[in-house]
Every structure is written in structure tokens, then in C-alpha cells.
Amino acid sequence: MTKSIENLRKRKSTGGRRKANRGRRAFERDSYAMEPTVGPVAVRTSRLRGGHLVIGLTAADVANVAGPSGKVTKSKIVRVKSSPANRDYERRGVITRGAVIETEAGEARVTSKPTDDGVVNAVLTGQK
Question: Which domains does the chain carry?
Fold first, then answer.
């Protein structure tokens, strides 16, 4: 999956075809979206420019849940109840920021971005 460099599909005003003036660079590579699901912990690392590494979750089974008092505990994720990002994510169990997950501590809203942060942080919503 790659990003387009230029719009080469369109023709020039004279009717001629457009040609790419260069190929693709390594830093312009794109990859498939990480969609973290409920399951045993699995991570994927990506190399960025300058040798930096980004660690993203592809699966998670525990979440750091903050209660009303502010105390944070590790809790097992049971399932994804709802996701404002995409209705299909509920059915597939994809964990995104803003998703409501059912944990052993109760219902919690995810506050972190699992694909960027490499961890699932959540806040209890008050419903059981």
C-alpha cells in the first residue's frame, strides 16, 4: 500500500501523458493500518527516518484503568462494546481511542492510541 507522489492519471493540457520524475523513496513507504484487537499482547515495530522506532499494539488483553479516585489498576479486557470510529470495529473487536471496552473493573473508555502509544489506557465510565 503506497501513497501517490503525483497525480499521473490525468493527462497534460496538450493531451500527452504524465511521467513520474522519480521513483519512490524508502521514507515514503506506507503500510497497512494496525487495528489492535482483543487477544494476547502482540506488537509491531516500524522504523522511521533517523533510525527511530515506533512500537504499536496489534493485540492487547489488559488495560490500565483509572477509577474515579484516580487510582490506576491493570484490568483484563473482556470485549469491545462500542466504537465511535467505526461501527464495524465493534463487531471485529478493534480497540481505538474513544472506544468503550468491557473490563473486569467495569465499562471503560479508551483514552490512549494503542497503535501510537503501545499501551491501552482507559477511564471508568461509571456503568457496570
Answer: 37-124 (3.10.290.70)
